[in-house]
Each structure stands twice: as structure tokens, then as C-alpha cells.
Write a sequence for this structure.
């Protein structure tokens, strides 16, 4: 289903009509979708920016439209950020995202299975661009930028979760930003053309877009990485003993 369909569903809801009465200058700034191909779940969030309140107001699309509490419009460095206006006529179908990524992977001779996709569409350099993070089978991440108007892949890179886990402190955070392109609630700076935050780290009130959910994924990978490294550490101790 096209992303614009979900925007229209939000606009038709009573909760949005009540919101726009109090925020007449608010405009659409981004749309977030999560597609889990293992559990067969699709979750959608539509974000509006209120210039009056300088906050992002989000709506979860499901059996009914749910209003998500206001969030500050900030980058990961807590700098104020005014998002560009996203028009309602988003062209790409959210179902097209994985096939588009898979086709480009084949062109690059990358043979991986995408199990889950997190994707934002927002304005980058004056045009709508999808910023996608794919979770690959085997603890890998695929980062890609897809132009909405042409469905062409502008950028693609595959990373291992281990590459990110091995970094700590500021360097680790920088690596996380690079891999994820700015997670919901933890975006990179606007100058890096990354998506705007959807849920602030301190709140994480909506589970499917919460940064805590992503952190849980990383924690699992970290535990697996530690388990895999145990034999290596033991061997090192043996070598030292010799």
C-alpha cells in the first residue's frame, strides 16, 4: 500500500482534526514504517511538525489512529532542527521497499536475506528520500537511501552488527549513527541529510518505534558476539601461559 494512503487515513481521523484545530500551521514532515518479514508485521507512524510549538506530533496507524505525545524537534546532538515539508503524494509503496533493496543488492552481487526493514521518508536536499535500515539474516545491517520519485537507490552499504558493537563511547555512537542513518529517536544531524526523530530516547512510549526496541536487538547481537568470542579469549590465555 502506498505511503500516501496512510497519510490520508491520518488526515481523515477525528484525532487529527482535533489536533490541526490547535495547530493550524502544522505540516507533514516524515513517515516511518517497520516491516518484519519473519513475524509478518507492518507498523506505520506519520509525523507532523508544529512551527508554533516547535515539536513533532506523531500518529500511529492501526485499527484506529493514535496520537503520540509531543516530542522536541532535535538532532542526536540536541540541536534544534526544523524539518522540511513532505507533500502528501508520496509515490512509493511501502511494499516496494524490500524488492527495491533486494534488486540493488543483486546488482552489487550481495546475497543476503532481509528479515526486517525500518524506513523513514522525509525531505533531503529538497526531495523525498527513504532512509532504510535492513536487518539481515546473520546479524548484518544494510543501510540504503532510496529516492521516492524514481525508486532508485542513491546509496547502499552493508555492515556487520559486530562492527558497531566493538566500538564504545563517542566513537561507538558515531558508528551507530553511520550504520542506522539516525534511528527513530536518535537521528544524525540535519546536515548529514538523515531522517528526523520519531520518538525521543527518554520516552519511547510507542514500542514499535522505540529506540529501546532497537537497543534490545543490539543487546541480543552483543550477547551472541561475546559468546562467539569466548573460545578466542581462552586460546589467548593459553598462548600467554605458554
Amino acid at each position: 500500500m502506498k505511503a500516501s494512503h496512510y497519510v490520508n487515513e491520518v488526515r481523515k481521523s477525528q484525532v487529527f482534526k482535533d489536533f490541526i484545530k490547535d495547530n493550524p500551521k502544522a505540516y507533514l514532515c516524515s513517515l516511518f514504517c517497520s516491516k518484519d518479514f519473519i513475524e509478518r508485521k507492518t507498523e506505520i507512524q506519520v509525523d507532523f511538525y508544529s512551527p508554533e510549538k516547535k515539536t513533532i506530533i506523531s500518529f500511529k496507524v492501526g485499527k484506529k489512529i493514535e496520537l503520540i505525545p509531543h516530542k522536541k524537534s532535535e538532532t542526536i546532538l540536541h540541536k534544534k532542527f526544523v524539518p522540511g515539508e513532505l507533500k502528501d503524494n508520496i509515490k512509493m509503496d511501502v511494499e516496494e521497499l524490500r524488492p527495491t533493496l533486494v534488486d540493488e543488492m543483486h546488482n552489487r552481487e550481495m546475497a543476503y536475506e532481509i528479515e526486517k526493514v525500518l524506513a523513514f521518508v522525509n525531505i533531503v536536499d529538497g526531495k523525498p528520500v527513504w532512509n532504510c535500515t535492513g536487518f539481515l539474516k546473520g546479524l548484518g545491517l544494510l543501510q540504503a537511501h532510496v529516492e521516492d520519485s524514481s525508486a532508485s537507490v542513491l546509496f547502499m552499504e552493508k555492515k556487520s552488527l559486530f562492527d558497531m558493537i566493538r566500538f564504545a563511547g563517542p566513537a561507538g555512537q558515531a558508528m551507530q549513527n553511520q550504520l542506522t542513518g539516525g534511528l527513530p529517536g536518535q537521528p544524525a544531524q540535519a546536515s548529514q541529510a538523515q531522517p528526523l526523530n520519531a520518538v525521543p530516547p527518554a520516552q519511547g512510549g510507542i514500542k514499535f518505534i522505540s529506540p529501546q526496541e532497537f537497543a534490545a536487538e543490539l543487546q541480543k547481537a552483543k550477547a551472541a558476539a561475546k559468546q562467539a568470542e569466548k573460545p578466542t579469549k581462552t586460546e589467548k590465555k593459553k598462548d600467554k601461559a605458554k
Summary: The longest strand covers residues 114-124. Strands lie at 27-36, 41-50, 55-61, 65-72, 114-124, 127-136, 140-147, 153-160. The longest helix spans residues 211-241.
